Amino acid sequence: AAPKVPAGAIALGLALPPILTYVFAVLFRIDHVRLLRIAGILFGLAGVLLVLLPDQSLPEPGMAPWLLMAFGGPLCYSLSNVCIAILRPPESRPIPLTCGVFACASIMMLPVMAVTENWWIFDATMTDGDWALIGNIVSIAIFFVVMFEIIRMAGPVFFSISGYFGTLIGLGWAALYFGEVPSSWIWAAIAILFLGLFLVNRTSKPSSI
Q1: Cβ contacts of residue 74 below 8 Å, gap of 6+?
Q2: pTM for the full predicted model
Q3: CA distance 155 to 141
Q4: Secondary structure percentages of the chain, helix, strand, coil, to 5
Q5: Which of 73, 118, 172, 207 is least surrounded by CB atoms within 10 angstroms?
Q6: How far apart, in whole angstroms, are the C-alpha atoms of residue 84 and residue 161?
Q7: DSSP-derived 3-state class of residue 78
Q8: Do the beta carbons of residue 34 and residue 205 sit within 8 Å?
Q9: What CA–CA distance (Å, rounded) separates 69 from 75?
């Protein structure tokens, strides 16, 4: 979906994990139903609809299905946050868990690389793209170590607040590298999403609902 829609619109989806993570946390009974957080979820839904529904929010109305597909990423990301909190072995450490993630990912990608014949082997003619890929691998490894530790210490909803920064950084890179100027609908959606995020992450007493 990335080549089909503006990068800034995809970055908007990075604001969804805190809201979706809270939804999954309630469904799996590791968090409580809270009125302020429910209001935040509704604001988040309104922000997404503000991008998907108006014809003027995206450069082309036909981009909406692709953007909806791109939002599947934050959905899976949010579910993984909660699964880590639930399924993580009690005595496990972040570095071995990260090594396990990389090992499983390598095994899963092996048949894909075999079918597509798209093998990547270190050789003497490393390009800038190769070095960028290596740098990305290192940064992702650090990210997973930090993620496992923060979820252990503070829980999945708190960790998902990183979506705040992802949205702002994504919009900034989209403007810097692609010259994208978000429409007024996008800016309105961002404001509503951040209001929803604020409400979802506010501390409040559990509701009796």
Answers
A1: 13, 14, 16, 17, 20, 163
A2: 0.67
A3: 20
A4: 75, 0, 25
A5: 118
A6: 16
A7: helix
A8: yes
A9: 10
